[in-house]
Amino acid sequence: MGQIPTKTLEDLEYPEVLRQYADFAITPLGKTACLGIVPEVDKELILDQLQAVSEFRASFDNENRIPNHGFESLTEVFALLKIENSVLEMHTFSNIAANTEITNTLLAFLKKFQTYYPTLYNRSEGLTIEKEIKSSVDSVIDRFGEVRDNASESLYSIRKKIQQLRGKISSSFNKALSQYQNADYLDDIRESIVDNRRVLAVKAMHRRKVKGTIMGSSKTGSIVFIEPETTHAQTQELQNLLFEEGEEIKKILSQLTDFFRPYLPYLELQQAFLLELDLIYAKARYAQEIKGLLPEMVMDSHEMDFKNAYHPLLLQAHKLEGKVTHPQDIRLDAAHRIIVISGPNAGGKSITLKTVGLLQLMLQSGMLIPVHERSKACLFDRILTDIGDNQSIENHLSTYSYRLKNMKYFLRKCDSNTLFLIDEFGTGSDPELGGALAEVILEDFYEREAYGLITTHYANLKVLATELPAMINANMQFDNRTLEPVFKLILGEAGSSFTFEVAQKNGLPFNLINRAKKKIERGKVRFDATIAKLQKERSQMQKTGQSLKEKESKAEQEGDRMAEMNAKLKTKLVSYQELFNHNQRMIVLGNKLNDVAERFFENNKKRPLISELLKLVESENAKRKRKTAALAKKEREEKKKLAEEVTKEIALVRKEKKKKAKKTPPQKPKPKLNVGDLVRMFDGRSIGSIDTIEKNKAIVNYGVFTTQVNLELLELVEAAKPAK
To answer: Of 302-306, 336-340, 490-494, 511-515, where does mean pLDDT reach its minimum?
Structure first.
C-alpha cells in the first residue's frame, strides 16, 4: 500500500485544516488526537470513517440527536491500575463512574436507533452496558465526592466517635469561655481560631490565671491565645480519631481500586470508544461549518467529478472577511487522466490544484468535503505535490534543482494509483530546455497511467495535451474586456497567458510592448493570439448561450402560463355551455308546463293533465338515459385505452423479466400462488387477484380488465384468506 508524504500535507496546508477541525472536539484528549490524524489509504477503513461522520452529521438535523459523549481522560489511571498495591484518588472513581454512565447511555441509544446509525453502532462492538461499576462507586463515594459514613463499619464507628467528641469539645470550650468572661480575663474579641482550633483571646496580664496551652499572641502582645486545658486534651484525642479515619479511608479506597483492576480492559475499550466518538463528532461539526457532505464514492475505478468544489481554508477566510468564494468543477477519469491548466497569473490555477489536493486529503482522513451532492470521488494510494517555491536553503539547492529532485522522486513512485499535482511545471530553467524536459517527464507520467493536474505557461505542454487522448487542456477563464480573472475552470481548451494584454493594462508603454513582440518568434505570437481569440469567442458564446437559456426559460414559463390560462378558459366555456343548455331545457319545459296548465284552467279536466305531465316526464327521462349511455360509452372507450396501455406495459415487463431471469438465478423459493391471492408483476405497480390457474398460467383480474400472465412473472402481495 502507498502512503501520503509529509511534504504533500505541508504543501496543501493540511495541518491548518486539522487545527480548525480540532476546535470542535469537546475533550482535551480529543483535541490532541485530532491534530494527529493522517490520511489513510485503506479503502474500506476510509469508507467506514466517512459513513460514520455522515451519520453523525445527519443527527444534527433530526429529532434523534446522539447523546452527549463528553468524558474525563483515564489514561494515567490505566497506568496506576497496572501497578500492584496502587491506590486511586477519590475523584478518579467519580470519573470512572461518570464515563461508564455516559457509555451506557450511548450504548442504549445506538442499539435503539441502530437502523439510523448502523456504522456508529458498529463502533460499540465489544462493549456492554455495565451497571456494577457505578453502583460500586456510589456505595462508597457520595455525590459530593466524599467517602460515605457507611462505606465500612469501622469508618461508621470512627466518625460517630468524632462527632460525639466534637460536641464535647464545643461544650467544654463554651464553659471555659463563660467562666473566664465572667472573670473579665478575656479581651473584647473573646475568642479566635489558631491552627484550625478555637482558642480564648486572653488579656496578656491575666495569662497565668487561665489554665491551658498557649497557642500564640497578637502582634502587639496585648492578647495571648490560649486553648483551655480540658479542650486541649479532647483535641488531641480528636486528632487521633481523624488519623484513624484517614487510614480507614485509604483501606476502603485500596479495596475499591482492587475491585476495578479486572475492569482495566473494559475501561480502556470504553475510553477508546468515547474518544473515537469525539473525533467523529468534531469531523461532523466541521462538516456542518463548511457545508461538507459525502459525495458518491467510486471504489472500483478512479473517477473524480467535483462539482461546485470549495477550498475549505479559503472558504473560512473569505467568510470572516465577507468576500465571495468561487467554486470549481473538476473531473478526472480514465478518459482524461491528466489536466494541463494554463492561463494568466493570478487567475486561480494554483488554488484549483490546492482545492483538488486538499479535498482528496480530507476525504482520505474521513472528513466530509464542501462539494455539490451530485459529485463523485475516488481514493488514491499516493498523492504527490510540487507546489510553491521549494527552494532548499539547508541543502544549498536552487528552486529548479530542488524541483528536479522532486521529479526524480515522482518518477520513482508514480503509478496508476497515484494523484500528482504540479504547479508551474518546468519553470526555473531555460524555457526551451526546461519545457522539453518537462514534456518528456509528463509523457512518462502518462505512460505510467498516473492521474494528475499541472499548471504551466509552456506551449509545448499545451500541444502535448491535444495530441494524447487521455490528456486534456484546461484554462482559467479571463474576462477579455476587463482583463480580470473570473476564477472558473474551462475544460477542453488551452489558455492564453495574456502577457501583452496584461502589460498594456498595467500601463507599460506601447513602444516597449511592440518591441517585445518583435523579439520573439512570429509563430509563438500567432499561437498565443489564436488561443486568446478562442478564449474570447468562447466567453462570448457562453454569454450568448446564457442569454438564450434565460429567454428560453422565460418563453417556457410564458407558454405554461398561457396553456394554463387556455385550459381555465376552456373549462369555463364548457361550464357556461352546460349552464346555457340546462337553462334552455328549463325554459322549454316551463313553456310546455305553462301550456298544459292553461288547457287545464280552460277545460278543468284532470285526466288529460296527468297524461300530458307523464309524457313530459317520460321525455325527460329518455333524454337523461341517452346522456347516460353516451357517458358510459365514453368511459368504456377510456377503459379500453387504459387496458391497451397496461397490456403494453406488461409486455415490456415480461421482456425485462425474461432477460433478468436468464442473467440471475432466483435467490429464494417463490411462494405457491393460489386462486384469490392478490398479486402483481415484478417491478409493476398494478395489483390484481387470481381468478383461475391453468398450466402454469394465471388469469389475473385487475378490475377494469383481465389478462393471462405466467406464474413466474407474478409476486405475491397478499395471500387469500381461508374460507370459514
So the answer is: 511-515
Each domain of the chain, given as residue ranges in start order, spans: 6-148+259-294, 160-244, 304-519, 555-643
Q: Give the largest Cα separation in the chain, rounded.
A: 152
Q: What is the pLDDT of residue 396?
A: 44
Angle at 584 between CA 578 and CA 589, to 5 degrees: 125
**Cα dist. 286→111, 512, 590 in Å?**
26, 52, 81
The whole-angstrom separation of Cα 449 and Cα 414 is 9
Q: Which helix (H) or strand (E) holds 476?
A: strand 471-478
Under a CB-based contact definition with an 8 Å cutoff, are residues 302 and 334 in contact? yes
Beta carbons of 484 and 515 less than 8 angstroms apart: no
Residue 523 has pLDDT above 50, yes or no: no
CA 574 to mean position of chain CA atoms:
55
> In angstroms, what CA-CA distances link 543 with 493, 534, 537, 549?
17, 14, 10, 10
Would residue 61 be called left, alpha or beta, if left means φ above 0 and alpha means ψ between -120 and 50 degrees? alpha
CB 150 within 8 A of CB 252: no
pLDDT digits (tens, 9 = 90+) for 9-25: 999 999 999 999 999 99
Distance (Å, whole) CA 421 – CA 361:
13
* pLDDT(477) > 70: yes
Tell me the sheet residues that pair with 471. Answer: 338
pLDDT higher than threshold 50 for residue 420: yes
* Cell 499541472, located at residue: 454
pLDDT (tens digit per residue) in 189-245: 888 888 888 899 988 888 888 888 888 888 888 899 988 888 888 888 988 999 999
Nearest-Å Rg of the Cα atoms of the chain is 45
Contacts of 716 (CB under 8 A, 6+ apart): 670, 671, 673, 677, 678, 679
Count other Cβ atoms within 10 Å, centred on residue 171. 12
User: Burial, 557: exposed, middle or buried (Cβ in 10 Å; 0-12, 13-18, 19+)?
Assistant: exposed
Cα distances (Å, whole numbers) of residue 80 to 85, 94, 261: 9, 16, 10
Q: Give the model's confidence band at 602: pLDDT under 50 very low, under 70 low, under 90 confident, else very high.
A: confident
The C-alpha atoms of residue 605 and residue 426 are separated, in whole angstroms, by: 119
Between CA 208 and CA 408 the distance in angstroms is 97
pLDDT (mean) for 42-46: 93
Quick: pLDDT tens for 101-139: 999 999 999 999 999 999 999 999 889 999 999 999 999
The DSSP-derived string for 158-193 is HHHHHHHHHHHHHHHHHHHHHHHHHTT-EEEEEEEE
CATH class of the region 304-519 = alpha beta
- Tens of pLDDT along 69-96? 999 999 999 999 999 888 999 899 999 9
Reported as type and span, the H/E element at residue 203 is strand 197-203
Predicted local distance difference test score (pLDDT) of residue 382 = 93
Give the DSSP letter of residue 36.
T
Residue 549 vs residues 137, 558, 564: alpha-carbon distances, Å: 71, 14, 22
∠ Cα 716 719 724 (to 5°): 170
425/445 Cα distance (integer angstroms) = 13
Grid cell, residue 169, equals 469539645
Pick among 1.10.1420, 3.40.50, 2.30.29, 1.10.3470: CATH of 6-148+259-294: 1.10.1420
Supply 459's cell numbers.
Answer: 506551449
User: Residue 528, SS3?
Assistant: helix
400 vs 438, higher pLDDT: 438
Q: Is residue 49 within 8 Å of residue 366, measured between CB atoms?
A: yes
Mean pLDDT of 383-397: 64
In this structure, the number of other CB atoms found within 10 A of the CB of residue 596 comes to 18
Question: Is residue 695 classed as helix, strand or coil in its secondary structure?
Answer: coil
Taking the CA atoms of residue 614, residue 619, residue 625 and residue 626 in that order, the dihedral angle to the nearest 10 degrees is 170
